[in-house]
């Protein structure tokens, strides 16, 4: 496809050195052929939009920057499931008691699969949980043939004098499922540390499970890791998880997303500088680090190592096949003016 050739050639011609590792000379040599970014926008928070990439670095909006599925509400998160279909999870808002799950064969047509309403107060050792469900995330663990559905729930209301205590009280909860229609008896806290966490997702890489988290404590000299992206690991899907790593991002970042590079040797970890200010990208060859931060999303082509459409807000990034990429571009159309952000 012409776009793929343009993107690959543009990345290779960038003037500043070094360029991000993990790229391939020809698209057909890529282990990971293309990527989908399912996200919201600054102007239309909580609704579903698509952008795509063939290199994991340069992203282009689809559908004339319009919604791709009007029924969706939430912080978009998609996983490929036990039956080869895609599952999308969300909720109307944090105060809604229910988590909605949709299913799709092609990432284009979505059908309601199930609505799950967790009994938050049944969570062990969390009797004071408030009725809040934030940013549900979904992961299918092929090793155990089950899904883990995570979200964050607080146990303290904010006050005028201390609004941050609401956020510091967020804890990550989970349930397990084989089919996303029946779930384990009650939610459970994922971590045993006494620390605010939100936006958590899990991936299995090699023999370990990694939980990518946002440390939700406000940063101070006594908690310098606050409002950063950190990583924990475990030999088991449900833990126990290690103490979180040092920060992978600067302070005041959230909504992390993780994808492998086209050659499958490097990790690209994106995160938002909120509220909708910018996007950052940290790069490593192993989730244990070390990580470095690439320059990008400045809209200066001779400086940027990565680029995204303007006004994108958080969601999820997943790998897709070249055929799926072509189908999405054919169905929705790609926003060609995004090509102008690439270096000449």
UniProtKB/TrEMBL annotation:
<protein>
    <recommendedName>
        <fullName>Glycosyl hydrolases family 43</fullName>
    </recommendedName>
</protein>
<dbReference type="InterPro" id="IPR023296">
    <property type="entry name" value="Glyco_hydro_beta-prop_sf"/>
</dbReference>
<dbReference type="InterPro" id="IPR050727">
    <property type="entry name" value="GH43_arabinanases"/>
</dbReference>
């Amino acid at each position: 496809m012409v776009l793929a050739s343009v993107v690959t050639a543009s990345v290779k011609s960038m003037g500043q050195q070094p360029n991000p590792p993990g790229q391939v000379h020809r698209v057909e040599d890529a282990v990971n052929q293309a990527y989908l970014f399912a996200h919201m926008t600054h102007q239309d928070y909580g609704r579903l939009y698509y952008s795509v990439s063939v290199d994991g670095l340069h992203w282009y909006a689809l559908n004339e920057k319009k919604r791709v599925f009007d029924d969706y509400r939430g912080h978009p998160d998609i996983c490929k499931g036990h039956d080869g279909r895609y599952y999308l999870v969300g909720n109307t808002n944090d105060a809604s008691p229910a988590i909605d799950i949709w299913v799709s064969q092609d990432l284009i047509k979505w059908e309601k699969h199930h609505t799950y309403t967790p009994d938050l107060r049944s969570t062990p050792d969390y009797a004071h949980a408030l009725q809040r469900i934030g940013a549900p995330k979904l992961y299918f663990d092929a090793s155990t043939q089950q899904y883990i559905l995570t979200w964050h729930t607080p146990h303290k209301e904010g006050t005028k004098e201390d609004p941050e205590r609401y956020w510091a009280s967020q804890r990550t909860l989970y349930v397990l499922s084989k089919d996303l229609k029946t779930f384990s008896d009650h939610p459970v806290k994922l971590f045993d540390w006494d620390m605010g966490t939100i936006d958590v997702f899990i991936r299995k890489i090699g023999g370990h499970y990694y939980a990518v988290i946002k440390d939700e404590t406000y940063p101070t000299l006594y908690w310098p890791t606050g409002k950063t992206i950190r990583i924990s690991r475990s030999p088991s899907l449900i833990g126990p998880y290690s103490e979180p790593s040092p920060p992978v991002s600067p302070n005041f970042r959230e909504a992390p997303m993780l994808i492998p590079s086209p050659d499958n040797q490097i990790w690209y970890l994106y995160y938002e500088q909120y509220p909708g200010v910018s996007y950052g990208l940290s790069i490593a060859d192993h989730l244990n680090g070390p990580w470095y931060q690439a320059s990008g999303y400045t809209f200066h082509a001779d400086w940027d190592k990565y680029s995204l459409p303007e006004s994108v807000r958080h969601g999820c990034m997943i790998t897709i096949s070249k055929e799926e990429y072509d189908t999405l571009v054919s169905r929705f159309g790609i926003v060609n003016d995004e090509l102008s952000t690439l270096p000449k």
